[in-house]
């Protein structure tokens, strides 16, 4: 049975829909960021495991923007997924080879051209934990079904461009940047053919940051 605190978000909406709020990004219409994204298809499926605190944040998270940009993605909100029916179905789906983005010993470093042991008949399913590093570690500790998955990692080519969230280390990046780097590296391994469409993820992030800077500057002058 699906845990009551976990929700599958197919079209992100607040629990009580409001006319002044976007039903996709859950932000106020004045600050809706959906227009920054240019949605595109990927062979890889992405599942964003969004911590409830991250779900409520309006300016300091990029998980929703990532979901809007990636057509082949979904969000599952929660912390303890041990009884989550949707997650269980994904993990047992014979069409997919599931992996978890999480650095650590034994994680396959895509930046070092370490090949994924992806069976020919399966599609890659990447789980991204959308939350702080502390909450990500807690989620992993609570969920043996996730901690048992093969893990992948990468080495970012540059510091995070997301200025609204202080990263705990130089190699840490936002969720949308993580999706970008993964797609870059999967394409280099011949697992994606994107024709540079994934570059729009970084463009969307830059647009979001610029918009938020202008919005805050305007608000401070009032």
Automatic annotation (TrEMBL):
Keywords: S-adenosyl-L-methionine, Transferase, tRNA processing. It is an enzyme of class 2 (transferase). One of its GO terms (molecular function) is tRNA-uridine aminocarboxypropyltransferase activity. One of its GO terms (biological process) is tRNA processing. It comes from Candidatus Raymondbacteria bacterium RIFOXYD12_FULL_49_13. Its EC number is 2.5.1.25. InterPro entries: DTW, DTWD2/TAPT. Residues 18-217 form the DTW domain. This is tRNA-uridine aminocarboxypropyltransferase. Belongs to the TDD superfamily. DTWD2 family. SMART domains: DTW.
